[in-house]
Specification:
24% strand; Rossmann fold; seven-stranded parallel beta sheet; 346 residues
């Protein structure tokens, strides 16, 4: 097995992974930019550690010396993914992360040719964003090969947000929505669509959002029209009709800084007890040019729990030589059964 480096090891989601490493046969090198946070974790688990800042190109290259796989967990990835991808390309290490950011997926796709030349795999979105929905998208495509439209939704039940997720959302506040139309990603109003969906075990009102599958599901399935939705209240949907009047305010620097301070005052993420009681409902629909449609629903484990398992499993696959050179989505590389394989179906 090639050496795996876990960068951002002191983050909420990465710390959920550490007790699980032995289950996946992994002895990672822990890494991050703050020695005071990384060193105690390394001592606690008996792992090697390295300290370097991604904005220091030379130090990052040195930090990846002898590493075969990088599992990148330090977001927001809009500010960190490029540096790590470039270092992986330079050093010949496979790259994974746990992002759900459309821009990061598109960046990785743009580096496909270079990754093939270097013989490395670029596999962003190896967590809840976007593994379960990516598997669902592929299953829907296999059941309707001529599908032209794909809509998926997810609805967490009793879940919560980590600092990293909340900070990423804060950085995107006021920027509107996105969907894929005729193969191209376009900007649309956030929550341009809202409807009551039947998840099989419950009904939930959902609105459209700029989720990662707007990018990844296209590369997994080839379906040219894609929209993502998530649970929200009808009241929130109604308020979004006035987004033109207040989104400019959310984009102001001092507003985002204030919201960031408020986020950091909260717990780092949902407690073990809350995660144990939570799960996520998935809904997916495909349509073809004939007007035929198909709907599938799934239940999967809570998002952060799922991420810890799926990211480690995918990292182990690459470390054991089961990857392919180039950019891939999780289901595009390993198929639609990932969730069942790792026991994360609910």
């Amino acid at each position: 097995m090639r050496k795996i480096l876990l960068y951002g090891a002191n983050g909420y989601t990465a710390q959920l992974m550490l007790p699980l490493c032995a289950k996946f046969g992994i002895t990672p090198i822990l890494a991050g930019r703050n020695a005071a946070k990384i060193e105690p974790l390394a001592r606690q688990y008996g792992f090697e550690y390295r300290v370097f800042d991604l904005n220091d190109t030379a130090a990052t290259a040195t930090g990846l010396d002898g590493v075969g796989v990088v599992l990148h967990c330090a977001g927001p990835f809009a500010y960190t993914a490029r540096q790590m991808m470039e270092a992986c390309l330079q050093q010949g290490a496979h790259y994974l992360d746990i992002t759900g950011e459309i821009g990061v997926f598109e960046l990785a796709h743009s580096l496909d040719a270079r990754a093939r030349e270097r013989g490395i795999t670029l596999l962003p979105g190896s967590g809840f964003d976007v593994v379960p929905t990516d598997c669902l998208a592929l299953e829907l495509k296999e059941k309707m090969p001529d599908a032209t439209h794909l809509t998926m939704a997810f609805a967490p039940v009793k879940g919560g947000l980590s600092h990293g997720t909340a900070l990423t959302m804060n950085d995107k506040a006021g920027e509107g929505g996105m969907m894929r139309k005729d193969g191209k990603i376009i900007s649309v109003p956030l929550g341009r669509r809202g409807e009551l969906l039947d998840f099989g075990v419950a009904q939930q009102f959902c609105i459209s959002i700029p989720w990662g599958d707007v990018s990844t599901a296209y590369y997994t399935t080839g379906i040219p029209n894609i929209e993502m939705m998530t649970a929200a209240s009808p009241k929130t949907f109604a308020k979004l009709k006035w987004q033109w009047a207040f989104f400019w305010f959310l984009r102001l620097g001092f507003v985002r800084r204030y919201l960031k301070k408020q986020i950091l005052k909260r717990p780092a993420g949902p407690s073990d007890d809350r995660r144990a009681k939570s799960y996520t409902m998935l809904w997916g629909q495909v349509k073809n040019a004939k007007g035929e449609e198909l709907v599938l629903t799934k239940l999967v484990k809570e998002g952060y729990t799922l991420t810890a398992h799926s990211a480690l499993w995918l990292a182990a696959q690459l470390a054991n030589g089961n990857g392919k050179p180039g950019f891939y989505t999780p289901a595009g590389l390993f198929g639609k059964e990932i969730i069942k394989t790792i026991g994360m179906d609910h």
